[in-house]
Amino acid sequence: MVGVASCAAVVEVWAAVFVVAPLAVLCSWALDALAKRHWIDDPLRASAVHWGSGAVSLVVGVGVFASPKLVADVYLNGYDTARDRCASLDGLVKNDDDSDRVDYAHRARTSGCRDFYGVAHGGSGRQLAWQVAALGCYTAWALATSAVVFVGLRAAGLLRVKLEDEVRGLDVTHHGGSAYEWYEPLAALPEAQVEKALPVSEEPATTDEEEGKA
Q: Do the beta carbons of residue 186 and residue 193 sit within 8 Å?
């Protein structure tokens, strides 16, 4: 769903199903593996799914596969009207005195309505460039605002909960009840069993004999 959200209005079904969606899934898997490799705490895979798949939809979906007819239907008030408008942009337009319209003539020498199409449909590449720029803006905004929030929480000592609370479950320790009716939460277990669930220290245990020698 995320992988085709940005491009749904302007991409043909075949492109969404056979190109954009598979690429979005692969991008999500790759980012998920990268997060695990570098121990990035993202248990919901929000970055991999929403940023990664969304980036594919935003850049590849719109920038590469935006269909001329769908772009016209959605953004240029109907295909027939848009076709006439694009014809006037793509070809020289004469005034009554046989002089060129300067604004249209300039567009005619460049790309006209091809600016709005995906490059796979004969687009000029300008829309693709704008999609990449938009991705950069969204990413920068998200990083900046997230940094303010998370750095602030860390400075206040509120970014992480205690390890014991994680083991018991935040639904129980912070929200007043179990989120799952079908299993017994650790909070209801004896303290000894909860301690067994906590990670063991990596330092090797010393024997009584070693302590005596020390």
A: yes
Q: Residue 187: pLDDT above 60?
A: no
Q: What is the dihedral angle through the alpha carbons of 12, 14, 17, 22, rounded to the nearest 10 degrees?
A: -110
- Residue 192 — φ and ψ, nearest 5°? -60, -40
- pLDDT (tens digit per residue) in 193-210: 556 555 555 454 455 555
Specify the amino acid at residue 214. Answer: A
Write the Ramachandran bin of 137: left for phi over 0, alpha for psi from -120 to 50, otherwise beta.
Answer: alpha
Contact in structure between 51 and 28 (CB atoms under 8 Å): no
How many Cα atoms occupy the beta-carbon half-sphere of 158 within 13 Å?
7
Contact 46, 101 (CB under 8 A): no
pLDDT on residue 93: 47
Contact between 61 and 7 (Cβ < 8 Å): yes
Tokens describing residue 168: 């018991």
Amino acid at the residue 115: D
The answer to whether 10 and 68 are in contact (CB under 8 A) is: no
31, 51 in Cβ contact below 8 A? Answer: yes
User: Exposure string (b/e) for 185-207, b if CB count within 10 Å is 16 or more?
Assistant: ebeeeeeeeeeeeeeeeeeeeee
